[in-house]
Design brief:
The protein is of the alpha/beta class and 473 residues long. It has 14 helices and 20 strands. It folds into three domains: 157 residues, Methylthiotransferase, N-terminal domain (Rossmann fold); 232 residues, tm_1862 like domain (pyruvate-formate lyase- activating enzyme), CATH 3.80.30.20; 57 residues, Nucleic acid-binding proteins (OB fold (Dihydrolipoamide Acetyltransferase, E2P), Beta Barrel), CATH 2.40.50. Strand 11, helix 9 and strand 12 form a beta-alpha-beta unit. The structure holds 5'-deoxyadenosine and iron/sulfur cluster (SF4).
């Protein structure tokens, strides 16, 4: 699977068996429970997309505000939380094998909780398959976490939060952010699209947007804390609909975030092609702080397959959006997601995806073999593609994309780009960071300290997935 960049906003997954259950408590009270929670330490492991990563930052914030302390290992923790992904079968399988590893921990008196998409999808069945688990909480129920923690602290043994029938968003007083330079900020949760392969609408519930004034207030706080890059998050971030009377459009929100003193970069992901309107491109043209990168998943280059996927656009309509972005007065990098081997995808359909890649010349892409997921409409579709054939198509697609990226990166040699420095290599004088177009740049500099600063980097070489360069002082 190609994953050159780290912005897989993975959607979710899974299919819940009952989407409207509220928090339910089974009052059993083994002595070890209160004792374990009482220790007040937690270990939080996260799988999946950026939305999940950011949810974990918020969950950690809730726990810290409650007086818990975060520790680095499950051994040191009283409470072990596992934020799961179920977008594809492989991710879901991983969860149960990890839960198997955590089994022994319960006998040591630790509390084990499963959060996220697989929790939503499997619900209380998790207690059947892994009876050592005490908390099952889907991502649409995180608002109830303090209440659920109180129930655990009171000694309740099986606590669940599986409600997706909500119009609330998950906002916290305090989010513990992992990245000291780039702050992720959810502006829209859930998804109202109905792509036939996707569990997200079931696991994350219906689309709900956060109030624009609340978003801007948090951006101001983040700027005061020293964050200079903001990444707005949502499964379909550009479907944002301000619930306040201001009715601020997404493009205007981008400009308003960029306008906050101290903010130097604004990113957003993931965009849905059908809601990608010209005013977003205009905002990118007029405000250089809005980063020159759009992640615009196409999924397939064949209109027939797109229809079966219920993607709400044709190949031609998608290409019109690409032409609009390419027509901007600034160069804008475009990346995408592709699924190969969707039921009924013929060799001719697949070739249309390859030809789309040639036409668009993406800067990067994430590619996946179709994975049938519980309760999704495509689960029952006929003409399944054999796994071996899916694997072949994936390899062909990735080979072709590698060549495209090589050629695109080669053209950047000699240019100078601004990089937000976020990493330092163990090798002396080597640093790394991202360009506005979200290309990873590894570069040399004799400077003593660069982390968190913006520097100019001259590109001297390139690989398909990164740029190599030197600091221009
Ligand atoms: N099988 C394979 N890939 C999937 N994705 C979503 N659901 C599935 C599935 N059932 C991919 C899509 C989406 C990305 C986050 O994951 O390409 O854009
Ligand atoms: Fe899933 Fe489609 Fe929603 Fe994306 S837009 S999260 S692929 S249903």
């Amino acid at each position: 699977m190609s994953k050159p960049f780290d912005f897989d906003i993975g959607r979710l997954t899974g299919s819940g068996n009952d989407f409207t259950r509220a928090a339910v408590v089974f009052p059993q009270k083994p002595e070890t429970f209160t004792e374990a929670v009482g220790r007040g330490t937690f270990f939080l492991e996260t799988f999946g997309c950026q939305m999940n990563d950011h949810d974990s930052e918020k969950v950690a914030g809730v726990l810290l505000a409650r007086g818990y302390r975060q520790v680095e290992t499950p051994e040191a923790a009283g409470l072990i939380l596992y934020n799961t992904c179920s977008i594809r079968e492989k991710a879901a399988q991983k969860v149960f094998s990890r839960l198997g590893e955590y089994r022994a921990r319960q006998s040591e008196g630790k509390i084990i909780g499963v959060l996220g998409c697989l929790a939503q999808q499997e619900g209380e069945d998790i207690f059947e398959r892994a009876p050592w688990v005490s908390l099952v909480c889907g991502s649409a129920s995180y608002r109830k976490l303090p209440e659920m923690l109180a129930q655990l602290e009171a000694g309740n043994h099986r606590v669940t939060g599986l409600d997706t029938d909500t119009d609330e968003t998950f906002e916290t007083e305090m989010t513990r952010r992992d990245n000291p330079f780039r702050a992720y900020l959810t502006i829209i949760e859930g998804c109202d699209k109905a792509c036939s392969y996707c569990v997200v609408p079931y696991t994350r519930g219906p689309e709900r947007s956060r109030a624009s004034d609340s978003i801007l207030r948090e951006v101001r706080q983040l700027a005061e804390l020293g964050y200079s890059e903001i990444q707005l998050l949502g499964q379909t971030v550009n479907s944002y609909k301000d619930p306040t009377p201001r009715k601020m459009r997404f493009a205007k929100l981008l400009l308003a975030v960029a306008d906050v003193p101290g903010i130097r970069r604004v990113r957003f992901t993931t965009s849905h092609p059908s809601d990608f309107t010209p005013d977003i491109v205009e905002a990118m043209e007029t405000e250089p702080k809005v980063c020159e990168h759009v992640h615009l998943p196409v999924q397939s280059g064949s209109t027939k397959v797109l229809r079966a996927m219920q993607r709400t656009y044709t190949r031609e309509e998608y290409l019109e959006k690409i032409a609009m972005i390419r027509g901007a007065s600034r160069p804008i990098a475009i990346t995408t997601d592709i699924i190969v081997g969707f039921p009924g995808e013929t060799e001719a359909d697949f070739e249309q995806t390859l030809s789309l890649l040639d036409e668009v010349k993406y800067d990067s892409l994430f590619s996946f073999k179709y994975s049938p997921r519980p309760n999704t409409p495509s689960l029952k579709m006929e003409d399944a593609i054999p796994e071996v054939e899916k694997g072949r198509r994936l390899a062909v697609l990735q080979d072709q994309q590698r060549e495209i990226q090589k050629a695109r990166h080669a053209k950047l040699i000699g240019e100078t780009h601004e990089v937000l420095v976020s990493g330092r290599s163990r090798r002396e004088n080597q640093w790394s960071g991202y360009t506005s177009s979200y290309r990873l740049a590894n570069f040399s500099s004799a400077a003593q300290e660069l982390l968190g600063t913006y520097v100019q980097v001259r590109v001297t070489g390139a690989t398909p997935n990164s740029l190599v360069g030197e600091h221009v002082v």
